[in-house]
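Example for tutorial group B:
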């Protein structure tokens, strides 16, 4: 199933849920046949307790409760009285620095023995030592049966819910014999978001100003790095258009951003468009004709770098006389990840004279690439190891004959260095047959979604966060 299927699947699911909700919210003289009526008919009169431990997440209990409660109160108000309150008290606690789960539960008011029992249950699915500062817990207690409301005392621990992230939580709930534990996954509401605009300075700054989050812009730069030399090919007045997923919680608050589904750059009149698509289980970005954006070799195998020295004759910064520079230099902060420019096998990874820490990758019978002056190598990178395109192989440094942190990058064709920026790169995969037909279908869906998605409001200042 493609990410698409999932998105539209969720969409359908949400429509279904909404449809179910409508009758419950509607008038009481037209009750839905088999939704709200069940607890009313089957349960004995008494306080309505949220159905804990019946596979409902805390969140869904919360959202259903008001609707469910309304019906029984109306029908059997005689036995409940106007001052009806559920007999469970929920307390929200936040993990602080130095907290253990025991400390958090004790702070919430749990008795030590009960806290211990619930922690033991939680420990079967979650490492209780892996608490993060700011993580939220919901701790529920039974209220004492005497509802005179005189003391602030609470009763026994009923449940503990640890929120792992915006989608997942773990709940330990009291049973007759102790605590049961379950993990709840709450699907988030996926929406589409579109950021569109003109490039006035860099793509990064302009896209940020258009409301596109930094992480998304970095991914876009990555996607287009096969085709675009971001140092030289971006001009004022060029345009971008980006469609990506944004997940929201029940209250409509944005929780996280998802995949980029489409991105286009219009550079000096040339349109580059890329669509996310999954073929044979592999995610990739394809142009409108179904050709992968991935080329055999990357032009710039380091993120966020500045081209600091081109290929060709130059006065050598250390030796002081004119030499032929047979590679390109990218200035980048020390420690920046250096990527394998293409799939291949590491031929050499080690100290190599003036090159300092050096990696050479053999890609095929024709091409090899070289990375020099590295600070260090990525784990597992040594001669004979297979590497994938984009995989980190080492980190920018200044070892060997070097004046400051930079990557010296060479491309060898048939044993001789060539200018990486002038390389006519062979194209990557091209979709055919059924994959192509599926892709073209998918492309139409995305084109429609793009047309229907309003663009994000512009931010007053670039760099301002969205959330
Ligand atoms: Zn160099």
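The residue assignment follows.
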């Amino acid at each position: 199933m493609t990410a698409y299927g999932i998105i539209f699947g969720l969409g359908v699911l949400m429509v279904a849920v909404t449809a179910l909700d409508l009758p419950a919210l509607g008038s009481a003289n037209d009750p839905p046949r088999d939704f709200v009526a069940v607890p009313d008919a089957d349960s004995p009169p008494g306080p309505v307790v949220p159905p804990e431990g019946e596979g409902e997440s805390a969140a869904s209990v919360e959202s259903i409760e008001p609707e469910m409660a309304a019906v029984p109160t109306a029908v059997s108000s005689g036995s409940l009285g106007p001052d009806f309150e559920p007999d469970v008290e929920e307390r929200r606690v936040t993990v602080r620095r130095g907290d253990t789960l025991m400390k958090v539960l004790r702070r919430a008011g749990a008795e030590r023995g009960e806290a211990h029992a619930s922690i033991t249950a939680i420990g079967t699915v979650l490492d209780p030592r892996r608490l993060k500062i700011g993580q939220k817990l919901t701790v529920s207690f039974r209220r004492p049966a005497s509802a005179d409301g005189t003391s602030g005392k609470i009763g026994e621990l009923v449940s503990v819910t640890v929120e792992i992230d915006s989608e997942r939580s773990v709940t330990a709930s009291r049973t007759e014999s102790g605590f049961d534990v379950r993990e709840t996954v709450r699907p988030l509401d996926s929406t589409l978001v579109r950021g569109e605009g003109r490039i006035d300075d860099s793509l990064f700054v302009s896209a940020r100003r258009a409301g596109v989050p930094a992480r998304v812009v970095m991914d876009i730069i990555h996607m287009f790095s096969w085709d675009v030399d971001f140092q030289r090919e971006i001009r004022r007045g060029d345009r971008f258009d980006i469609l990506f997923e944004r997940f929201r919680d029940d209250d409509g608050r944005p929780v996280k951003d998802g995949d980029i589904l489409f991105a286009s750059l219009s550079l000096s009149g040339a349109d580059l468009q890329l669509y996310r698509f999954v073929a044979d289980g592999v995610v990739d970005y394809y142009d409108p004709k179904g050709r992968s954006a991935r080329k055999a070799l990357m032009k710039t195998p380091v993120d966020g770098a500045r081209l600091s020295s081109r290929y060709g004759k130059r006065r050598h910064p250390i030796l002081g006389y004119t030499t032929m520079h047979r590679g390109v230099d990218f200035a980048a902060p020390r420690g920046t990840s250096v990527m394998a420019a293409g799939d291949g096998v590491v031929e050499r990874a080690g100290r190599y004279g003036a090159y300092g820490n050096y990696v050479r990758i053999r890609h095929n019978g024709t091409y090899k690439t070289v990375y020099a002056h590295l600070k260090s190598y990525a784990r597992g990178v040594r001669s004979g190891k297979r590497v994938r395109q984009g995989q980190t192989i080492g980190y920018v440094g200044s070892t060997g004959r070097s004046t400051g942190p930079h990557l010296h990058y060479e491309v060898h064709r048939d044993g001789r260095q060539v200018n990486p920026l002038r390389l006519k790169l062979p194209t990557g995969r091209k979709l055919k047959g059924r994959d192509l037909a599926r892709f073209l279908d998918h492309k139409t869906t995305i084109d429609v979604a793009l047309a229907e998605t309003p663009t994000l409001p512009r931010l007053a200042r670039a760099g301002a966060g969205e959330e």
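Residues 1-85, 462-467 have pLDDT under 50 and may be disordered. Compare this with the pattern of hydrophobic and polar residues in the output above.
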